[in-house]
Write a structure and sequence with these properties.
A 3-stranded antiparallel β-sheet has the order 2-1-3, with no helix packed on it. By secondary structure, it is mainly alpha-helical. 40% of the residues lie in helices and 6% in strands.
């Protein structure tokens, strides 16, 4: 979003639509001409943090486990079930094998 283009108080707000909308909404007043500039989202760099670590970090930040799984799933464009199953098997998709000797 651009405000007051070509003027002394020129301002640009960048981010997702929700982020850009929240910034002026938090102010007492927004004056001047406003222009919305919309472009195609750039490709995200893949998050190579192991799923379990990503979920654990959100939990440490105070998020409930299921909400953390949902958020990680959304960020990686996976279903909640896929994230849960991959965490249960380990990041590689292989089942974890116990090393107990009988």
């Amino acid at each position: 979003m651009a405000r007051e283009l070509t003027k002394i108080n020129e301002e640009f707000l960048r981010g997702t639509a929700a982020e850009v909308r929240a910034q002026p909404a938090a102010r007492d007043a927004v004056k001047g001409e406003i222009t919305r500039l919309i472009c195609k989202a750039s490709a995200r760099t893949p998050d190579d943090t192991p799923l379990q670590e990503a979920v654990d970090a959100l939990e440490r930040a105070g998020m409930a486990k299921m909400d953390a799984i949902k958020q990680v799933a959304r960020q990686r464009r996976l279903s909640k079930r896929e994230v849960y199953d991959k965490m249960a098997r380990g990041e590689s998709g292989q089942f974890r094998i116990s090393s107990t000797i009988m």
